[in-house]
Design a protein that fits this description.
Number of helices: 1
Largest sheet: 6 strands, antiparallel
Keywords: Signal
Number of domains: 1
Order of helices and strands: HEEEEEEEEEEEEE
Organism: Fimbriiglobus ruber
Distance between the termini: 67 Å
Protein name: Lipoprotein
Helix content: 10-25%
């Protein structure tokens, strides 16, 4: 019985250690500019390279009036786990409301930066405060 308890304790310890490092979030901020002006209202998504999008938290941020953004990792809070990420950006302005929910127009970027299968942008999140260089978008 002691051998079983020792084995279970060891397995649980290893499982908890791997969960802890995988889910530790580090602050991520940056700017999104379009032709030199802030892309105010755009949404930026981080997709972990090699990750399983069906089983991972959605990591995203909304670009503010000055072009800045901060990333939120679903219900876990602000930041993102360390790793390599593909970046997808959509910029769909709010055109109205229906049933209390905002309605969005067409992507101002015409989908150029919105295809997760062919991302044009990427970022590396490190185990520190991450102030990313500005994403400079063009037509």
């Amino acid at each position: 019985m002691k051998k079983v308890n020792f084995f279970l304790t060891a397995v649980l310890s290893l499982a908890c250690a791997s969960c802890g490092s995988k889910n530790t979030l580090y602050p991520v901020s940056g700017k999104v500019m379009y032709n030199g002006a802030p892309a105010s209202g755009a949404t930026i998504f981080f997709h972990r390279q090699g990750g399983d999008p069906m089983n991972e938290h959605m990591i995203m941020g909304v670009v503010q009036d000055d072009g800045s953004f901060e990333i939120v990792c679903g219900s876990l809070g602000k930041g993102a786990p360390p790793g390599e990420y593909d970046i997808v950006i959509e910029w769909k302005p709010v055109t109205g409301q229906s049933k209390g929910r905002p309605q969005h127009g067409a992507d101002k970027l015409k989908g150029r930066y919105a295809d997760p299968k062919r991302p044009l942008l990427s970022a590396s999140i490190k185990t520190e405060i991450n102030n990313l260089p500005a994403f400079e978008l063009t037509k």
